[in-house]
Write a structure and sequence with these properties.
Length: 138
């Protein structure tokens, strides 16, 4: 399974789209590391990067939302907070049980499916709002 960033996931906001692409690259790196039987340290390092990059990406979106008065800010932020909790729990499960393929596959599917749904359902609408308010990144 591989996650592809395609046209249907483009928000039209260059910075947000680049960050989304990096999230997909990181997910695919985890898949590759698992399939190649790489050591747990490598997989943990990539999961940690995913955690940190996700936090940074959410801050980018939330800063833009506040700057442009996005009316869905609170709900969008709640989605982000819930997702950060999910990623932390998945990471902890990998640490507790080890990077077994089934657990890695479940973690990647959870994260990947959430990203696709969130981008298509929330971020595209947010980017359209930012554009309507004159954000030049769109």
């Amino acid at each position: 399974m591989e996650y592809k960033f395609d046209k249907s996931l483009e928000t039209g906001h260059a910075k947000i789209d680049e960050q989304h692409k990096q999230l997909f690259v990181t997910l695919n790196t985890i898949i590759e590391e698992s399939e190649q039987g790489r050591g747990k340290d490598e997989i943990y390092k990539t999961m940690d990067f995913l955690n940190q990059y996700t936090i940074m990406h959410f801050k980018t979106e939330e800063t833009l939302q506040k700057e442009y008065g996005f009316p869905g800010y609170e709900a969008h932020k709640k989605c982000h907070e819930d997702f950060k909790t999910t990623v932390k729990e998945l990471t902890q499960a990998l640490i507790d049980k080890g990077p077994v393929k089934e657990l890695i596959d479940a973690a990647v599917k959870t994260v990947g499916d959430w990203l696709v749904t969130h981008i298509k359902g929330n971020d595209i609408a947010m980017a359209a709002y930012l554009k309507s308010k004159g954000d030049k990144g769109v």
